[in-house]
Amino acid sequence: MILNSVANDLNLQALHPLDTGWYQENELKSRADAGQSYDLSYRHLSPVVEYDQLARVVPEALLTTVMRNPDTKFVSMFNFVQTTKSQFGTPERFVNDGVFGGQATDQQVNDLCNNMAYTLSGKQDVLGRLTEAESIEYANKMIADLESRNMFVMIMERMEESFTVVCDGMGWDCYSDQHVQIKNTRERSQGGSKVGCAGACLDVIRRCNHVDYALYEHFSARLTEVMKGVEGADGKVEKVRQHMASSRQGAPKYPVNCKKAANQPWERLHTCDSKASWK
Question: Rg (Cα) of the chain, in Å, rounded?
């Protein structure tokens, strides 16, 4: 996890859920009301995203997320969610019989179709069954909302450029050889044989992913524009690439929930009590 390494090396305290590995409804509000404040949060939010409360508990933050090419994201998730894979066998059957034939549950649809839009929407809408026209309308409204919050979307296939933008935006030194140890993410292993998807198969899975494709196209173009304004961009991107390729040990794995107590020095950056209460 890249941001975990940054937090560890720059001594930044991270916000984590209190329990269950997810932020519960009104959790961020109650913690903000209690005066808690953190340096950053790099955790997935639940679909009920309390953006305004997040801004209170992580003030002056750059709101960002990572988006992956919808083709590879769908195929990866289809192979990862073993129950869905076993039930439908192929991506085409899942889309044709499951999504549009009514055999898939809402949760299965949200796991695989327009999953990025579903996660970022802050709502519990089922987006995979929208028509193409409805999807484009939804995507346009969503893009306007995210940009009104100054959301910067990192593109997974262009992570070196994306992370350079984040480092510059936050004023972090991510380029010194002796400083931040950036470790790139690795895809989780998936049991059993993997199902692939190409050609006509991709045309099928796009039927239930129109919103994500629109978001991906828009924010990929946005990254290209932002990079034009980064001073010394080529050199910074190359430094980030070198750090990602490094075999040096990264930061310890962050916890599922915030730590009630710190038994190791690094654990203090992951405690439930914010720095405001440190003595």
Answer: 20
